[in-house]
Amino acid sequence: MSNTRRGFLNVGAALAAGLSGAASALGAQQPAPPQAQNAPPGAPPAPQRAAAPLRPASEVQVPHMKFGSADISRMVLGCNPFYGYAHYNNNFGVVMKEWYSEDKVCDVMHQCNRFGINAFNYAHLDRGPQDLARFQAEGGKMHLIIQVTAGVDAAMLVKTLQPLALQRQGEVVDRAFQTGQMNTVKEWCKQVRDLGVLVGVGTHKPEVIAQVEEEGWDVDFYSGCVYNRTRTVDEWKQALHGEMMEMASDIYMQSDPPRMYKAIRQTRKPCFAFKVLAAGRVSDRGVEQAFRTAFESIKPTDGIYVGMFPRTKDEVRENAELVHRVLSGS
């Protein structure tokens, strides 16, 4: 793992200690009112933080695109690292969750704002409502593209968070696809349409996008994982020539991305590609090429979701500079 983006696990304890203060300084602190204006019901008051001058916006800004009525960054902040959804291994997930305090989550979101990243693929899970309320109370602003998991009330999300868009989470959609129950996802999309927000379908399978397109569903966008990590056991055995690997839900095959990118290009609807860095499996030297491949493989009306974990470096700045360079041709 030493030459992966998340190779910090081999970094010495002294280096980790020296970096902890720098990481917490990612965001400028400012006074916070007791509660965010659009705080979810039951969210605790946003705690006060010591006042400090806001840092100016960076000279490097992630290019934007039109999405519905909004102007959003083509790189959208992902939420998985905030709450330990590493999609790597359990130990790494625990480290993520322990490192990401409320302060650090908000600091990273403020840092994203400075680089022009103004959209967040939020999920209503774990400490998410509390952290979002605090970020908003501190003056942060993000267009919310919410991935809605099973059991979460879409109407409640729209009423309390005023999102730009709701998408059915890819895990939920893929299970419906595998069990022949895509009608439940279609019905969910119809209900969300009546809520007055953009409607999306998330998936890890190009076949899902093809089916929804062929059947002409009333949806506005798709979110597609470029790695098909929700294959069944039989599908994995076929893909791996009869072999099976540990943690079958997080196998990343290099032959997968072209298939999803093809599906994204074939629809006229806006799309968001995610896990373009294979959940951190792409080495540091390969990150720029992975971003370049992603943007060259999708449409100008499309974007990407990217989670951030700046424990050992300012990954927000690095990613913003790389995406700016790729999209500006500089």
What does it look like?
This protein is of the alpha/beta class. The protein has a single domain, classed as TIM Barrel (Alpha-Beta Barrel), CATH 3.20.20. Helices cover 38% and strands 13% of the residues. The chain contains 12 helices and 10 strands. The chain has helices at residues 13-24, 90-99, 102-114, 128-137, 154-161, 170-178, 182-193, 206-215, 233-239, 257-266, 287-297, 315-328, and strands at residues 64-67, 70-73, 75-78, 119-121, 143-148, 165-168, 198-203, 221-225, 271-274, 303-306. The protein has an 8-stranded parallel beta barrel, surrounded by 5 helices. A two-stranded antiparallel ribbon has the order 1-2. Strand 1 and strand 2 (70-73) form a beta hairpin. Helix 3 (102-114) packs across helix 4. The chain is globular.
Layout of secondary structure:
Elements: H1 13-24, E1 64-67, E2 70-73, E3 75-78, H2 90-99, H3 102-114, E4 119-121, H4 128-137, E5 143-148, H5 154-161, E6 165-168, H6 170-178, H7 182-193, E7 198-203, H8 206-215, E8 221-225, H9 233-239, H10 257-266, E9 271-274, H11 287-297, E10 303-306, H12 315-328
Parallel strand pairs: 3-4, 3-10, 4-5, 5-6, 6-7, 7-8, 8-9, 9-10
Antiparallel strand pairs: 1-2
Helix pairs in contact: 3-4, 6-7, 8-10, 11-12
List keywords for this structure.
disordered N terminus; alpha/beta; two-stranded antiparallel sheet; TIM Barrel; about 325 residues; eight-stranded parallel β-barrel
Termini separation: 31 Å
CATH class: Alpha Beta
The CATH homologous superfamily name equals: Aldolase class I
The largest sheet has its strands arranged as 3-4-5-6-7-8-9-10
- State the helicity in percent bands: 25-40%
Structural class: alpha/beta
Biggest sheet architecture? 8 strands, parallel, barrel
Secondary-structure element series:
HEEEHHEHEHEHHEHEHHEHEH
Overall shape? globular
Beta-strand share of residues:
5-15%
Query: At CATH's second level, what is the architecture?
Result: Alpha-Beta Barrel
- CA-based gyration radius: 19 Å
- The number of helical runs is 12
User: Quick check: average pLDDT?
Assistant: 86
Stretches where pLDDT falls below 50 for ≥5 residues?
A: 1-38
The total of beta strands comes to: 10
| CATH-assigned fold name | TIM Barrel
Number of domains: 1
